[in-house]
Amino acid sequence: MSKSSRSALLGAMFLMATSAIGPGFITQTTTFTVQLGAAFAFAILVSILIDVAVQLNVWRVVGVSGQRAQVLGNKVAPGVGWVLAGLVLVGGLVFNIGNIGGTGLGLNALFGLDAKIGGAISAVVAIAIFVSKRAGVALDRIVVVLGVLMIGMTAYVAVVSRPPLGEALRSFVLPDTVSFLAITTLIGGTVGGYITYAGAHRMLDSGITGPENVGAISRSSVYGIIVTGVMRILLFLAVLGVVAGGVTLAQDNPAASAFEAAAGEVGLRLFGIILWAAAITSVIGAAYTSVSFFTSERTTPRTRNLLTIAFIAVSALVYVLIGTAPVTLLVFAGAFNGLILPIGFTVILWVAWRRRDLLGGYRYPRWLLGIGVLAWLISLYLGWSSVSAVGTLFA
Prior knowledge:
By secondary structure, this protein is an all-alpha fold. The protein contains 15 helices and no strands. Helix 5 (80-111) packs across helix 6 (115-131) and helix 6 (115-131) runs antiparallel to helix 13 (301-321). The protein is globular and about 60 Å long.
């Protein structure tokens, strides 16, 4: 494996991870931890288990076939791929508006900037990455560095907030209450929509595809899942420690006040860095992945970069023009993506089950297909349960 391929594969792992631990997850975790306390641990566990089942199958099918999800969809049934592409585009745009909002909240906590001004500045930074002739290399390096930075800083805050570990561990399997909206929103914010395909589509650019590379494909997906799982648990523990201490968090930016309560002024500044890093990497991931659904290997890098820049610019413009509170928008984006998750995953599982010809004759593991079907059924049930609940977010 060449150095450039290894770099792209590492970038794919962290692109998946940083997309899954974006500002939506940070805001959702804080909001629901305040509401549910330690019981929110169960929602995190369910999201991690579904993430494992989904990503193992998506990376395996996309990687072995060497084809993007929308291409597979059109080969399964004409037009299905374009429907999937449209859903991912809409979901990615909604989520990216929230991601831009997250960068604004991050710079607000770090420098006191107005959230809309901070969002606009961050959009310019993201666009600058794709202006570069070596946008792919820049993307890989940035998501890795910022991903490691987020985990390290969050781990520090999780330690100083002193969460009730015993209660949290019990709630992972025996929660006092179960919230379907919390579970569905978390799944949508960390697994659904464009996030499902971010790492797998980036992996295709590394050239590591086909049945002969199934080992490297599987290992990369597992490593990415481990990174996201660690970050989810650390962030939950950091906020839980503050909530369990009886601190009342600010309504307009609850996550910022949680970090400030845990580590004072330093905590607030760390939160600003963490949220901005999570948001800017998610802006990049949402734009890159959404555009990948409307381009192919025949599309020139310049055209792909211009489309990505346009996607970021439109997201930023909508965010600046609308008046929706960033926290509400981020929670809605997660719930929306949770509703569209089962559709694209249906294509993946059908290829794994019935279209061996698209996998180069590869014999798909039955155990992997089995856990994928289980995750698909759960996502269907959770999506249906959240339909009425999503509408109450803007009430």
